[in-house]
Design brief:
CATH architecture: Roll
Helix content: 25-40%
CATH topology: Nuclear Transport Factor 2, Chain: A
Distance between the termini: 62 Å
Number of strands: 6
Radius of gyration: 16 Å
Number of domains: 1
Structural class: alpha+beta
Mean pLDDT: 89
Strand content: 35-45%
Number of helices: 4
CATH class: Alpha Beta
């Protein structure tokens, strides 16, 4: 099996240069069927089919994506990484219509691997900063008088 650090680098290199079909090949080879992706806000993506659907939706909303892996730490069957992503918003994302706006966000990921397959992925990213770059506004709630 590849070193886990190399697997992270390969995943993001494939993500930046490939189609959904190319990513599905990566998923088939390196992701367990009982996989779980934990996203901010308690959202979970389960199984390889859930991950493939997530890719399809994300790749239709964001184009010209790029990722830079800033740091990785590998220990036994786990790898942690800190990175930066950018893309152009060209499709509907979480109800937000496309505005052609480029965004950049920092994120961190933690993978757990079993039997040479990724079984669990925890992902944290600057969701607020990303949403603001996509045109969302943060407003204070009106105070009750």
């Amino acid at each position: 099996m590849k070193r886990l650090k190399d697997l992270v680098n390969q995943y993001y290199a494939d993500l930046d240069k490939t189609s959904v079909d190319g990513l599905n090949k990566f998923v088939s080879k390196y992701v367990s069927s009982d996989f779980v992706l934990h996203l901010p806000g308690g959202m979970e993506i389960k199984g390889t089919s859930g991950l493939q659907e997530y890719y399809t939706n994300s790749m239709s909303a964001f184009k010209e994506g790029s990722h830079t892996i800033d740091e990785t730490i590998e220990e036994e069957n786990k790898v942690a990484f800190r990175a930066t992503a950018s893309a152009i918003h060209k499709g509907v994302f979480m109800g937000i219509p496309p505005a052609g706006q480029k965004f950049t966000t920092s994120f961190a990921g933690f993978w757990k691997v079993k039997d040479q397959k990724i079984v669990e992925w925890w992902s944290e990213y600057d969701a607020l900063g990303m949403m603001q770059q996509l045109g969302m506004e943060l407003k204070m709630k009106a105070q009750n008088e």
